[in-house]
Amino acid sequence: MLFSEIFLGILEGLDVTLTVTAFGLLFAIPFALVAGVAQQFLTGWKRAPVTAIIEFWRSTPILVLMFMFYYTLPVAGVYLNATTVAAMTLGLHIGAYGSQSVRAALQALDRGQVEAGLAIGLTRWQVLLAIELPQMFVAMLPTFVNQFIQLVKGTALVALITMTDMTARAKELSQLTFDPPAIYGALMLAYFLLLYPATVLGRHLERVVGRRSGRLNGGRAGDV
User: Fold this and answer.
1) CA 36, CA 167: separation in Å to the nearest integer?
2) Terminus-to-terminus CA distance in the chain, angstroms?
3) Structural domains in the chain?
4) Which stretches within the chain are classed as H helix?
5) 194: how many CB neighbours lie within 10 A of its CB?
6) Picking from 65-69, 118-122, 195-199, which range would have the lowest pLDDT averaged per residue?
7) Which of 148, 156, 187, 220 has the fewest CB atoms within 10 Å of its CB?
8) How far apart are CA 108 and CA 216, in angstroms?
9) Whole-prediction pTM value?
């Protein structure tokens, strides 16, 4: 087979890769935000369950999670399709890491802004929603892009739970023609072309956020 034919054959699995990525984001983003904020503001015993949930999804290998939910739950009478399992396990795994970035971003914000908000009569949650979260989102844009990249790369594992993504298509093609360099070179090229624009975007956002932070810090220093 020609390299172009192999490459096009691999792209037949692109729709599965993109579908799992899109649904994975629906799990990852809300989980990262809710868990990160909860871990930041809850104290004592209330914080322990949140931390336990985060550590479960963060510390368990994605492949083990996929196998557990796809092959083990049916024993208990719970049946989830492969797309749901893939999106949920990848999304919550990435979201668990993202929650720590959310918490770190909240901790990095200027405490004086919180005190100013409270001084004008806002409640703590109003300060969070109106002052802290908007700044946190801006600061975390590069991190969110990096998490997106990790999520897409993680979709290469869904072939192991019967889904025909790009990696599965490469395996199928390898059974038709024994040409590993061409097949896996084409697979590597497909992922590179898919993710390189996101990498460039992430670097651009890092520079933008860095310049914005520099201006803010410079302004505060001037005020002092």
Assistant:
1) 32
2) 69
3) 3-223 (1.10.3720.10)
4) 3-11, 14-41, 47-59, 62-67, 82-108, 111-119, 124-127, 133-154, 166-176, 180-223
5) 18
6) 118-122
7) 220
8) 13
9) 0.86
